[in-house]
Design brief:
Chain lengths: 112, 112
């Protein structure tokens, strides 16, 4: 079955540590997105990529970095510069033709 | 001009009743209006979507009503069930840029 796989489901980060969240899709979608969701809040765009080897900052990119070396993969690194990283992180992809987004099941990141 | 305003923030409806969530937009270039449903701990999933060439679209108990002149669209859930309890997001996008602009979300609770 086609879809988006995010891993891990839960992640714990120590202060000052960088962590990488994985996002893989087998839908052959061109565009991929990373969102952050805080409890009871909406979706805030971190980074997005419309083609391989190219990505753009979203509304809250500070303290985050991404890469897009393969069409299927769009990993997100939460750096030590992100002072409040505890949140639910969602990856999505879209097919250029219909604009509907497919989301992964999310990674819950907690700072310990 | 890029905003999509969603209301109410939260909504409680009795089982069997009609749930109505509203969204308004400013950018007349938007031409795709989806609704997403998100259960706790999961990623949002596309529920139903409409384009501005029609005023209404119905899929089962879910209906989108679209008012182009007022720049508003709404989601109606008929015969609401406890399983419909979730957070609902409206969104909008333009043909030339398939990045979705999201509403803030509505937490819907259906009381048995």
């Amino acid at each position: 079955d086609g879809g988006i796989t995010q891993s891990p489901k839960y992640l714990f980060r120590k202060e000052g540590q960088n962590v990488t969240l994985s996002c893989e899709q087998n839908l052959n979608h061109d565009a991929m997105y990373w969102y952050r969701q805080d409890p009871g809040q909406g979706l805030r765009l971190i980074y997005y990529s419309q083609i391989v080897n190219d990505f753009q900052k979203g509304d809250i990119a500070e303290g985050y970095s991404v890469s897009r070396e393969k069409k299927e993969s769009f990993p997100l690194t939460v750096t030590s510069a992100q002072k409040n990283p505890t949140a639910f992180y969602l990856c999505a992809s879209t097919d250029r033709a219909n604009y509907g987004y497919t989301f992964g099941s999310g990674t819950r990141l907690t700072v310990v | 001009q890029q905003q999509v305003k969603q209301s109410p923030q939260s909504l409680i409806v009795q089982k069997g009743g009609i749930s109505i969530i509203n969204c308004a937009y400013e950018n007349t270039a938007f031409d795709y209006f989806p609704w997403y449903q998100q259960f706790p701990g999961k990623g949002p999933a596309l529920l139903i979507a409409i384009r501005p060439d029609v005023s209404e679209k119905k899929e089962g108990r879910f209906t989108i009503s679209f008012n182009k002149s007022a720049k508003q669209f709404s989601l109606h859930i008929m015969d609401s069930q406890p399983g419909d309890s979730a957070t609902y997001f409206c969104a909008a996008s333009r043909d030339s840029n398939y990045q979705l602009i999201w509403g803030a979300g509505t937490k819907l609770i259906i009381k048995p």
